[in-house]
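Researcher: I'm preparing a figure for a lab meeting and need a structural model of a single chain. I don't have an experimental structure, so a prediction will have to do for now. The sequence is pasted below. Please return the structure as C-alpha cells so I can convert it later.
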Amino acid sequence: MHLKQLLNQGKLRRHKTSKKEIGNLLELVKRDIKDAKVKGLSVDRKFVTAYNAVLQLATILLYCKGYKPEGAGHHFTVFQAIKNRGTQYLIMKNLRFLYKLNKAL
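Model: Understood. Here is the structure written out cell by cell.
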C-alpha cells in the first residue's frame, strides 16, 4: 500500500528519526540475531526472535523514510509500508550494509 494512503488512514504518522534512535534499534537487531542462534532454544522462540529482528529492520527503513506506525496492528502496517516501491529501493540500496551487519555478529 502506498505510504500516503497509510498516512491518511491514520496507520502511519510523520516521524523525524535520529542517529540515536536508529542505533538503539540496530542494537535490538544485533541482539535478536545473536539470540536466535542460541543452541537449545526452541524453534518457536528462534522464529519469534528472528521475526523481531526483521520487524526492527523494517521499522528502521520506515523511520528513514520519515514515517512511524500508529495504533493497533503496527506490525502489519510496517510490512505493508515497506512494500512501497520507494522503500524497496531503500532496502536494495542498504542490502550491503545489512549483510555487513550480519557478518559482524
